[in-house]
Design goal:
Structural class: alpha/beta
Number of domains: 2
CATH superfamily of the largest domain: Alpha/Beta hydrolase fold, catalytic domain
Order of helices and strands: HHEEEHEHEHEHHHEHEHH
Radius of gyration: 24 Å
Number of strands: 8
CATH architecture of the largest domain: 3-Layer(aba) Sandwich
Number of helices: 11
CATH class of the largest domain: Alpha Beta
């Protein structure tokens, strides 16, 4: 016959069980709420230009390009700052949109070189970056409004009648694609290192960086960010946006060693309905580093694309 447990032992066991249950519940709360909510809050409320980028002092004048500071307002009231690079008889005006944690500085050198080849430019600081305002970073979704505001500014305030080309990098590429889906005034696009959709890029980065499955952290992160920024998954999907863009010319650029978005950019290039599309993969380049890795190849690919736009509106750009 087993000896009965002492009252003291029974009480200790109950307290131990309560502690374990409490810790388990706290762990679930952290996994399902605190961690994804905190990460979503940090990205949407605190993402902005990194300190090293803010130390950069170059302007278009550094590259012998004419420019002036410009300011305009996105349709949700967010103040946007930028540089306008005027060019008499410009073949096109290019609107440049940078990546996450960067600023207009990221696109400056390539914009100055294209200015030298006859293309006017508008470099903008996306919201919460550079000198622009904004309460939330939308990771490309809200930033589409900044690109659209740039289009309106080019047409209404600058009175530029040349064709408009949207040129985006990473987050800026997503913003440019989404903007073009809503703004037919964007005549062509240059899309560097773009992701397929917010939903898919969250899942991919969780697996790539941490080896984690989508459930539960990914689903919660997606949910909280959707609630904060205000979009549905289908709204933040570049393949759906490309369907609305239709047959407008598109140049896709990716880095050969981009573990984050090479496959995504290839998939976008394949699914794009445009008969005037091309894909250029820069050898040895990591995410967003195509220009830095091989500026000559990068610049020539862009110039060939832009030249093709001028030669014929019916030119076909073969998918490589």
């Amino acid at each position: 016959m087993n000896a009965e447990k002492s009252p003291a032992g029974s009480k200790a066991w109950r307290w131990t069980r309560r502690i374990f249950v409490t810790l388990f519940i706290l762990a679930l709360v952290v996994i399902f709420f605190v961690a994804p909510y905190g990460l979503s809050y940090l990205v949407t409320h605190y993402a902005g230009t990194q300190p090293m980028e803010r130390q950069l002092t170059a302007t278009p004048a550094t590259f012998q390009a004419d420019y002036r500071d410009v300011h305009f307002i996105a349709k949700d009231g967010t103040p946007i700052s930028g540089w306008y690079l005027p060019k008499e008889n410009a073949a096109a005006i290019i609107i440049y949109a940078h990546g996450l944690f960067r600023s207009r500085q990221e696109m400056l050198e390539r914009a100055a070189k294209l200015w030298q080849h006859g293309y006017a430019g508008l470099l903008i600081d996306l919201r919460r970056h550079g000198n622009s305002g904004g309460e939330l970073c939308g990771l490309g979704y809200l930033e589409r409004l900044d690109v659209e505001a740039g289009v309106k500014f080019v047409r209404d305030s600058l009175q530029v009648s040349a064709p408009i080309v949207g040129f985006g990098l990473s987050m800026g590429s997503a913003a440019t694609v989404l903007a073009a889906a809503e703004a037919p005034e964007i005549d062509a696009l240059i899309i560097d290192s773009c992701f397929l959709s917010f939903e898919k890029t969250v899942v991919h980065h969780l697996k790539l960086n941490f080896g984690l499955p989508r459930f539960p952290l990914g689903d919660e992160l997606i949910f909280f960010t959707r609630m904060k920024v205000g979009f549905k998954n289908e709204d933040f999907d570049m393949q759906r946006a490309l369907q609305k863009i239709g047959d407008r010319p598109i140049l896709f650029i990716a880095g050969e060693k981009d573990m984050r978005m090479l496959k995504d950019t290839r998939a976008l290039a394949t699914s794009a309905q445009s008969s005037r599309k091309s894909l250029v993969v820069i050898p040895g380049a990591t995410h967003g580093a195509g220009y830095r890795t091989n500026p000559a190849m990068y610049e020539q690919a862009v110039l060939d694309f832009l030249s093709g736009l001028q030669q014929s509106t019916s030119s076909n750009f073969n998918l490589k």
